[in-house]
Amino acid sequence: DTEVTQTPKHLVMGMTNKKSLKCEQHMGHRAMYWYKQKAKKPPELMFVYSYEKLSINESVPSRFSPECPNSSLLNLHLHALQPEDSALYLCASSQEGESATNEKLFFGSGTQLSVL
Amino acid sequence: SQQGEEDPQALSIQEGENATMNCSYKTSINNLQWYRQNSGRGLVHLILIRSNEREKHSGRLRVTLDTSKKSSSLLITASRAADTASYFCAWEIYNFNKFYFGSGTKLNVKP
User: How far is A91 from A66, CA to CA, in rounded Å?
Assistant: First the structure.
């Protein structure tokens, strides 16, 4: 199984809503990532979890709250988002390799989020 | 900024021609990788080159890396209409376990 599964594929939410994005992988990868991608732009790194601990937060606003309940799951909790947060949210995982370097990223197909 | 630069931003070629896209980054890296993205969905890994390598081949793909110039290029030979997609370089920052992406090249291969 070389898949990263993201749900839901599409999400529309109001600015007062609370929602969660989910990501799952069963490849035994120990690093998991959240990226945000606006249309016609490259993915921008948001968070990195390494061995289920948050290792990198790229100064992301607190209305985005990541969670890693176990080594296979990654969630992104959303609260009080703004319309400019509308984007494609991508989850990825990687197998930490030798010398603490990571190998390639495996991406899910993303959640297209619209904030009204 | 997380972004590096890629050029060209867009490239339109005929089927059978070669496509070359270039990437520049700003920091020391562990490795550099190229990814492909169709229709704004998930990215697919194409090829990885380590910081101590200069050239690598995989099928119709050839990637080069010049760490002194902090640049890389991806060559797709004998392109096909199915190669139409956006291509991104990505680098893993040395000792920081982070992957950052270049600005991307949108490739259109006309049949």
Answer: 11
